[in-house]
Design brief:
Number of helices of chain B: 5
Strand order of the largest sheet of chain A: 1-2
Largest interface: A-B, 14 and 16 residues
Strand content of chain A: 5-15%
Radius of gyration of chain A: 11 Å
Oligomer: heterodimer
Distance between the termini of chain A: 23 Å
Helix content of chain A: 40-55%
Strand content of chain B: under 5%
Distance between the termini of chain B: 33 Å
Shape of chain A: globular
Number of strands of chain B: 0
Largest sheet of chain B: none
Chain lengths: 73, 149
C-alpha cells in the first residue's frame, strides 16, 4: 500500500517522533508505515487521516495506484 | 532451568519495551509492571523451592500455602504480560505475535528434537524445552524489530 505520510509530515515540519506522539504509537510504527513495511490498522488509519484533516483515501492508496487526492467529489 | 529461562525471556521483553526509546510511554509502563510481577514470581519460586528442599518450611498447611504464592504471582505476571500485549502499540503487537509463533513452533520442534537427542544419549531434559522455546521467541523479537526498523 502506498501512502503520503512522509510528505504530509514534511509539510508540517514534524519529526517521526512528533507524529508518533500525536498518533499515540511508537516512532518505529510511523517509520514502518512511511517506508511501506507495515500497513496500519483501520482505527490507526482513521487517526492518521484525522490528524492531517484528510480522508483515508487521500493518504493511502492500494499498490499500483498513485497516492493523491480522493476521487470522490 | 525453567525459572532462568522464564526470567530471561521476560527480561528480553522488558528490555525491548522498557528501554527502547521508540516504545510508547504506556508500553514502557506495562512492561515495567510485568517485569516486577515476574521478578516477584522468580524470587518466591526460588525461596519456596529452597525452603521445601532444605525442609525449612514445615509440612502441611504452611508448605501448601507457600507453594500457592509463586503460582499466584506467576498467574499475575502472565496477566500483566497479556495486558502488555493487549495495550501494546500495534506494530509491537505484530512483532510479538510473530515471535510467539516462532517460539511455539520452536517448542513443538524442540520437543521432538530433544526426544531424539535423548535417545542417542545426549544428556537433555524437559527443562531444556523452555530454553529452546525462549531462544526461538527472542530470535523472533529481534528479527521482527529488524524487519520493521
Amino acid at each position: 500500500m502506498n501512502n503520503r505520510l512522509k510528505v504530509l509530515r514534511a509539510e508540517r515540519d514534524w519529526t517521526q517522533a512528533r507524529l508518533a506522539e500525536e498518533l499515540e504509537v511508537s516512532r518505529q510504527t510511523v517509520n514502518a508505515i512511511e517506508t511501506g513495511k507495515y500497513d496500519p490498522s483501520l482505527p490507526l488509519a482513521f487517526r492518521i487521516a484525522a490528524t492531517f484533516g484528510q480522508s483515508i483515501e487521500e493518504i493511502f492508496q492500494p499498490d499500483g495506484v498513485a497516492p493523491g487526492p480522493g476521487r470522490s467529489s | 532451568m525453567s525459572e532462568e529461562t522464564g526470567s530471561s525471556t521476560i527480561a528480553a521483553v522488558w528490555r525491548y519495551f522498557a528501554t527502547c526509546r521508540n516504545a510508547t510511554a504506556r508500553d514502557r509502563r506495562n512492561a515495567r509492571r510485568a517485569m516486577w510481577w515476574l521478578l516477584g514470581w522468580a524470587v518466591s519460586f526460588v525461596a519456596v523451592r529452597l525452603g521445601l528442599e532444605h525442609r525449612v518450611l514445615p509440612e502441611g498447611l504452611v508448605s501448601d500455602l507457600a507453594v500457592a504464592v509463586p503460582i499466584a504471582l506467576g498467574l499475575i505476571a502472565v496477566l500483566a504480560y497479556v495486558r502488555l500485549i493487549r495495550q501494546a502499540d500495534e506494530l509491537q503487537r505484530k512483532i510479538q505475535l510473530e515471535a510467539m509463533a516462532l517460539g511455539f513452533g520452536g517448542a513443538f520442534l524442540g520437543n521432538f528434537g530433544l526426544d531424539l537427542l535423548h535417545q542417542v544419549g545426549v544428556p537433555v531434559d524437559g527443562g531444556d524445552l523452555f530454553l529452546v522455546a525462549a531462544a526461538f521467541y527472542i530470535i523472533g523479537v529481534i528479527l521482527g524489530a529488524r524487519r520493521y526498523a
